[in-house]
Amino acid sequence: MDDKKIRKNLFWLDDKHGWLIALEADNRADWLRLHTASLDETITPHRSNPLAEHIMPIDMEGYWFQFGPGKNQRHGAGAREVIRGKAQDSPLLAVRAEDAPQAQAAHVEAEPVSLATPAVGETLIGLFCSGNIREAILGDLAEKFEERASERGASYARAWYWWQVARSFGPFAWRWGRRLVALDDLRQLIGW
Amino acid sequence: MTRDTLGQSEFIVLGVLARRARGAHGTALLDDLQEMTGREWSVGALYTTLERLEKKGFASSEWGEPTPQRGGRRKRIYQVQAAGLRALDKTHEMTSALAPARAGSRAVEA
Prior knowledge:
The complex is a heterodimer.
Chain A: E1 5-14, E2 18-24, H1 28-43, E3 56-61, E4 64-68, H2 77-89, E5 108-109, E6 113-114, H3 119-128, H4 131-152, H5 154-189
Antiparallel strand pairs in A: 1-2, 1-5, 1-6, 2-4, 3-4
Helix pairs in contact in A: 1-4, 3-5, 4-5
Chain B: H1 8-18, H2 26-37, H3 43-55, E1 59-66, E2 74-80, H4 82-109
Antiparallel strand pairs in B: 1-2
Helix pairs in contact in B: 1-2, 1-3, 1-4
């Protein structure tokens, strides 16, 4: 998988409107595909905020994704207008929290999220697979990784990937063992 | 075990593959295997089994198209062969023949 980076800004609006998260990708299709995977990593560092416990996805407008403060509180119209107005005609990163009428605190710049499959895991798999199936196996793992990432987040997908690497070690080692035994038999047969 | 009968994992993987008339690649097979056996298979277990089946002539494979989701890597499409279908039948017959023996041992236990 390509080393996709999501550029994002996390804005704290106010108690009523909660967090506003802007995710920027190269195009809408990429953004739609990648946004889910980034959510857990976006929110996790901000768990210390008491309101963060109630954060849930409530709306998606264009390239924006917004989190409201809780299930029982309706998402305010003000924030929605901000999102609509800015998303239509502005580049994403041009929108700043201070431009939003409800904004109280400065925006928080979040670290970029890498959605690449674990490189060390790929190398380990590559070491044990024979050349003709290596490409197929790494491709299948990448496909499943992306599926897991969009369903349950990047952290889960990474843990799943490592679980697959660990569980695949046994079958590959067994296969290598059988080959070595066969080689030994052949060596004894020819008296070498 | 003779070369025209199958081990347990070979039987399951080949059985799943036989249900796909047009063949299948690893990801689809992993989904089918999970559905059928109720547990998640590792890619290592799947591909070492497929490799054995191919070596025995029960399955064949060819390269498919690369996709962006796979990081530009190609799919390996597997298909069951006539010999594989015969091996499936034979193994099924063999395990079915064991069923009365199992029933008999239960009767003795009772």
